[in-house]
Structures are given as C-alpha cells and as structure tokens.
C-alpha cells in the first residue's frame, strides 16, 4: 500500500475539540428571546388596534351571520370595509370589540377597488392609522384582524408573500398592486385590516383562494386611502372614461415592423359613443390604440390601469394607428 501524502493546510481536531470549536463558532442566539420579541410585537399591535376593528352585518340579520369586517379610520366614525361586504346596501350594523352595535351608513362604494366607506352613528371612537403600502417588503411580518366565520376579534399572523399581484374587482376591472400574504384568513375577514408590526394598516383583506392554504390577498392601503379621499372630497371615485367600446386585435408582423411597434396586440375601437370623450377628440371606429402617454397598451386592462394612473389634472396623449399611420390625439386635463 502506498503512503498517502498529507494534505497541506488542514488541521485535524479530536472529537471533543471539534465539538468545542463548532460550538464556539456559532452565533449566540437566544431563541426564547426572539420568540418573546415576536410575540410581544403581535400583542402590542393587537392591544393597540383591536378597539378600532369592527364586525359588519346587514340590518336585521342575526348576530352570528356577520358578513364581514372593517376598521375605524377616524374618531368621528368613518370606517373602511370591502365593497362586496356592503353588497349594495345603504345601511348596515357595525359591532365594536366591546360588543356595542351601532348603525352604519354607506358613504361610498367602489366595486372597482373593492373598497367601501362607512360612517358609524357614534363619536369619540378609537381608530387605526393608515400606513404606506409602497414600503412593504416580501417576508415582512403582517397581522390580519377581523371576524372570520362570525368569530369576532380573531387575530392571525404571517408574512408578505408577494407584491404587485393583480385581481379583478366586482366590475371586472383589475385591482393593481394587490398584496399577497400568508396570514390565515377566512370568509368574514373581508374588509378587516392587514397590519405591520407597528400597528399601521398596510392593506384591506379582500379575498382568499378556495381550497388553498396560506394564500390571502389585501387591497393596498395606498389604494384604500385614495378611494377614501375621493369619497370625502367628491362623493364618488372620479375616473376618466373614454366613451368607447373596444376589443383586442392581433397586429400582423409586417405591420409591426413598418410602424415600429413593440407589441403584436393592440386595442381596436369598435364603437365611439356619442357625446363622450373619444368622440370629442376625434377617435374613430377601427382605430387601434397602442399607447397612452408613451405607455404601451396591449389590452383593455391596460387602458383601465393607465386612466387610473394619471391624475385628472394631467393631459393624456393617445397614440393610435389609423390607415397604416400613427396618429396622436390629446385628452385635455380636467379642471
């Protein structure tokens, strides 16, 4: 048997020495301390925010048949819930964590974002603070509160699973930048707050995927704040309307190259409604809409998203293809 050559640079330790060395190299982490810190963060949020969380039901319904949740936004009784919780009703009942039941009037209802604004017939109420959902990060701790399946004052925890999801509202529009999270929610959680570790509302729980576990969705707080401001300032959510009907149109590759287009799909105008914006600025049936303010349009959802993205005081430049040529038309800024 040949003598094996020593491998340079290696130092062999006895079993005891190796164990001591490995233990010494490990960072000293107190698991109990970390668990206590996590628990304390959740406890602090629950104690601070739970008085502002409400259960929402239709008037005349049995107490056990809670249709959803919500949370108070101001001390004078304004509260946020989901549009699908309101369900077209004008008056509801709200129950606080103390068991008080008060009338709630629907101030505004926006199915496009699944957000509704209520006002409770009470004053000097505890309320929750809206946070900035654009600061959320995947993996961040979040806490869901509400009344799932009629079980009031229920708390669950998880993390932000993904950002920038899209889902359709009740009117078919896409709700953008939806927060996906892993805090368990169930029917009845709808309209309840999704909170960060500092107790700020970063989302409004809105939906789950049936038969899935740990997959929930929340409308971002920034969207909810915009909708609430629209209700309070204008009584409704103002959105630009083009006044046309449209369908998708596939663009032949030769036409794409000739017009230097970036997508083989555009939105074809089928009908222009009389008296609408599209009619006023000269859009015609058969036009292909390919861009709004230099943002690519390749679906009707893109149009809805871009009409919402730009404020009403910003003019819109629409790029069309008409008779094999590019045409630019402008929607003036609203006053």
From TrEMBL:
GO terms in the biological process aspect are: proteolysis
**Is the keyword Hydrolase assigned to this protein?**
yes
InterPro entries (UniProt xref): Chloro_Bact_Ser_Proteases, PDZ, PDZ_6, PDZ_sf, Peptidase_S1_PA, Peptidase_S1C
**Where in the numbering of this chain does the PDZ domain appear?**
245-324
Q: Which residues form a coiled coil?
A: none
One GO molecular-function entry: serine-type endopeptidase activity
Mind listing the UniProt keywords for this protein, alphabetically?
Hydrolase, Protease
By its UniProt entry, which SUPFAM superfamilies does this protein fall under?
Answer: PDZ domain-like, Trypsin-like serine proteases
Record-given protein name: Serine protease, S1-C subfamily, contains C-terminal PDZ domain
Organism encoding this protein: Planctomicrobium piriforme
Q: Could you read off the lineage of the organism from its UniProt record?
A: Bacteria, Pseudomonadati, Planctomycetota, Planctomycetia, Planctomycetales
